[in-house]
Amino acid sequence: MDEIATDYIYCRIMTLADEVEKSLYRVAVDGGLERNQIYNMMKRGSMPDLRILNKICRGLDVTLKEFFDEEFHADKNERILIETYRSFKGQENRNRFTRYVVGFAGAMKDENTEGLKNVNDREAN
């Protein structure tokens, strides 16, 4: 069972590193680990403890929950939005940020819909 869990952990690290376009070296350094620590753990086949896994998650810019949630996939821009949201102190500031982003997205959707309507109108004529 431990071997299966270890393989899962390392597979997940590789998958998420690929999604955020980071090398394992960069994940380690960004997470506060020694530069070859992830490589060395993989080579030995050792299970990272919670402290190390938390640093790996930091290097991947994900939470532990997101790490284990296989449904979680966010591209670079989505991660920037998540990090920005999390950087705000207080729920009211986070709510204001959310309202701004949702309002901006709505305005862009309306703009895109209007542009699409104009294209369709031209094609009809």
Short overview:
One of its GO terms (molecular function) is DNA binding. By secondary structure, this protein is mostly helical.
Output the number of helix runs: 7
* Uncertain segments: none
Head-to-tail CA distance between termini: 66 Å
- As a percent range, the share of strand residues is under 5%
Mass-distribution shape: elongated
Report on this structure.
The protein is mainly α. The protein folds into 2 domains: 2-73, 434 Repressor (Amino-terminal Domain); 88-124. The protein is 77% helix and 0% strand. The protein contains 7 helices and no strands. The protein is elongated. The model has no long low-confidence stretch (mean pLDDT 83). InterPro entries: Lambda_DNA-bd_dom_sf. GO terms for molecular function: DNA binding.
Itemize the secondary structure elements and their pairings:
Layout: H1 2-19, H2 24-31, H3 37-44, H4 50-60, H5 64-68, H6 76-87, H7 91-124
Helix pairs in contact: 2-4
List keywords for this structure.
125 residues; mainly alpha; 434 Repressor (Amino-terminal Domain); 2 domains; 7 helices; 0% strand; elongated; Lambda_DNA-bd_dom_sf; DNA binding
